[in-house]
């Protein structure tokens, strides 16, 4: 059981480092616009206090954190030129030193998206 927790801890550290790489890559002019849009969605979702499935929902609440974010990170890294990734890896070493940066703009965007989805669903089912 301890090995499982150690493996999860290692995976969490890798995700944190990859998020910092994406955060730094977003600011680089060499990164294509479509990659920047995808990066903004992934980093915004990962740093947002709002989840697709709330964490208090048993088991399913953590699936988005364990599955969606790593898949999104992997896809985003594939969209970025290799030389940009390497330079961002070097810069990323110190980014999360003082804890996770808060992204209130990204959180606001995620909340806005969820509100739009809720309005659409309500509108669709109340006709």
From TrEMBL:
Keyword Protease (UniProt): no
Organism expressing this protein natively: Anaerosolibacter carboniphilus
Record-linked InterPro entries: DUF1232
Entry's transmembrane regions: 31-47, 106-125
Keyword list, A-Z: Membrane, Transmembrane, Transmembrane helix
Mode of membrane association: Multi-pass membrane protein
This protein's record includes keyword Hydrolase: no
One Gene Ontology CC term in the entry: endomembrane system
Compartment(s) where it occurs, according to its Swiss-Prot or TrEMBL record: Endomembrane system
Pfam families referenced in this protein's UniProt entry, alphabetically: DUF1232
Top-level lineage group: Bacteria
Name recorded for this polypeptide: Uncharacterized membrane protein YkvA (DUF1232 family)
